[in-house]
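Here's what a typical entry looks like (Ribosome biogenesis regulatory protein):
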Amino acid sequence: MAAITAEQVLAQVEKDEAETLQLITVHKELELQFDLGNLLAIDPNPPDTKAFRQQNRAEYLRSLARDNTQLLINQLWTLPTERVQESVVVKLPDPSTRLPREKPVPKPRAPTRWEEFAKLKGIQKKKKTNLVWDEQHKEWRRRWGYNRAKDNTKDWLIEVPSTADPGEDQFAKRMKAKKERVAKNELNRLRNLARADKGKVPGVGLTPTSTPSKDMLGKAMHIAKRATASAGKFQDKLPKEKEPKNMGKKRKFQPLLGDFKVEKNKQLDILKIMDSKKPRMDVSKAVNKQMREEDAEAAAKRRKNPKKGKGGRGRGGPKKGKGGQKAAGKGGKGRRK
């Protein structure tokens, strides 16, 4: 192996540096305009039309883009740099060119009620892992969603609590509670969207309006009274207060397992009505219906002849003379004597 002197090593280094400088050195008649904040370079030099026609167009455009990109990178290395972990980072200045934008800059999302409360109380959000250990199946499962750990919706047996009704369906109770939670979460989501859009946030059962009616105020008062632990059982009523209409009262059904004597009497009453030859009639209801029909007919007659009364005449009726006899005039029905 031949020995290499120090002069040969220096000559080789100088040669490599010259080749590197030749690769990164680009000569332009006019200097480029740079906007380093946007990583933008504007080339004011006119394109060489002769070279564009004679050479391959794609190669010419590629070489032109390469030269301008090299000049932009050379300008970036003139900026102050810093080392972050194992990388060299350049701190870009503020952009000077205002670029057009199709849509406005998105506004930051408004915080939810929980986020405001957590910020006020200083509650820090803790990141939870997606997988948890399921003791029943002895494996790692998802915390939420399908096939999750500790999924109580697939239990075939539920222990009845000591304080619960033995005849109550625990499966139906669990499904009802889940539906209520889902509905509550959806309501809170819609409220957060309305608060973010600065719109009117609907309450529970009553939408706010600028001019509420009497019925709406009555419903609002009824809802406020029932929003207690006793569901309004011990709330005092105002003088002349009436129950609001159309509050969505549900029909009440008898329990499946109840008093057999009451159910027996109901079935016997139905059989008696079906076997009886004469229809079962409520006398009071029939009389009231007849009286309402007669009052309606009398009111219709009064509307038809409003000025007719005792000893008077109707509109357009014949005049009466002395002694109460009808007087025949021109065009009347009486005969001329």
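The helical segments are 6-24, 49-54, 57-76, 113-121, 170-196, 214-226, 260-275, 283-304.

More examples are in the samples folder.
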